[in-house]
Give the backbone structure.
Amino acid sequence: MDAGSLSAELREGQRERLREKPGEKAWGTLVKAIGLMSGTSMDGIDIAYVETDGQDVVKCGPSDFAPYSDAERALLRAAMADAAALIGPSSKREERPGCLAEAEAMVTQRHAAVVAAFLERDDLADKPIDLIGFHGQTVLHRPEQGLTMQIGDGVALADTLGLPVAYDFRAADVAAGGEGAPLVPIFHQALARASGFAGPVLIVNIGGVANVTYVAPGEPLMACDVGPGNAQIDDLMRARCGLAMDPQGAFAARGVVDERILADLLAHPFFRARPPKSLDRNAFSSQAIENLSTEDAAATLTAFTAAGIASILPFLPKPPARAIVCGGGARNLVMMEVLRQKLGCAVESAEAFGWSVEAMEAQAFAYLAVRRRADLPISFPLTTGVARPLPGGFLALPGHDTNGHDR
Ligand SMILES: Nc1ncnc2c1ncn2[C@@H]1O[C@H](COP(=O)(O)OP(=O)(O)OP(=O)(O)O)[C@@H](O)[C@H]1O
Ligand SMILES: CC(=O)N[C@H]1[C@@H]2OC[C@@H](O2)[C@@H](O)[C@@H]1O[C@H](C)C(=O)O
């Protein structure tokens, strides 16, 4: 079957479902999509269901999270170290040296299992899925060298699930001279527009790395990575206490910020660089906090993340009227408090607006998959630095090669 007849069959399936449910609102042009995100904190896989036209209409449904085991996380860390071998003028992003091939197979299989389990949910029983958005796991991000690598085999995932899969979303942007990240801003903009905020809004995502999106009526979408997120705090907690994170910021709350070390950390040239800009997970060293107590180190790293986020303020066209925080960092009470001090505006959790703290990125990749299918741009001059709005991602159809060619 070719790509055209497959999508015709999907469209027919969609009509069939609408016929079956006369009482339901006919979301004729909406695509039923699942988004999958394995973020830089490497804590696990977020999965979310979204119905969207890839533009203004976004209906978010159920979501879930599946943690990686310690062994899987160790394999991802080893893959990240092995990916560093690809840095250099002759590097090719298709290469999988060291344990990268094993890690990629694990990532693909775990995602397939997570989707299969998710589809068993009762609340998805009457929602046949049209499309999957598969981010994969970033193991290397060096846009200045034309290199960004997300492992995860989209073609294999499409075959395993028997569903179309959009994947490898960052490559086209980096190939066109962009930063390749962040990509979630166009989704943030859709949410913010639907909420009808009157003034400028700063959406702050605190995952492994922190990034922001600035949305203001009548102004172009603007976004960038802003500094470290939780990754260094997680590394500290794992190394010192065998914990996955600083729960609710409890360690940071008992510590004292080392202002000298904080100032040194903030002297990094990244914070003075104009956006667009993006970061590798391991861009910042944790050496400076090695001699501090765990509590003081956690307090200092938490303040570092919050100050990094605030460092974007001078680059914004107008001061934000409010900041909306998503990503796991929104669960860190100390982080939220320090952000309130540093941003000088109302700082609220995404949940205050009915948005998801945890599932936002997975939802975004469902939305971006739909944009891929519709050939709509996902990156923009003021989000990744790309010269003009650019679509991104490849589409794998079951039994077909990337972008629908028969195998
Ligand atoms: N209850 C909590 N208290 C403190 N920190 C938390 C809590 N829950 C989550 N976190 C932090 O959030 C992190 C996970 O955040 P998130 O899921 O947004 O990351 P991610 O998916 O890797 O994101 P990104 O791709 O944006 O880097 C955890 O590693 C942890 O540091
Ligand atoms: C290269 C890469 O994977 N970057 C991630 C990372 O995690 C947060 C921040 O750094 C952001 O730039 C991006 O992820 C989100 C999902 C994005 O593209 O918007």
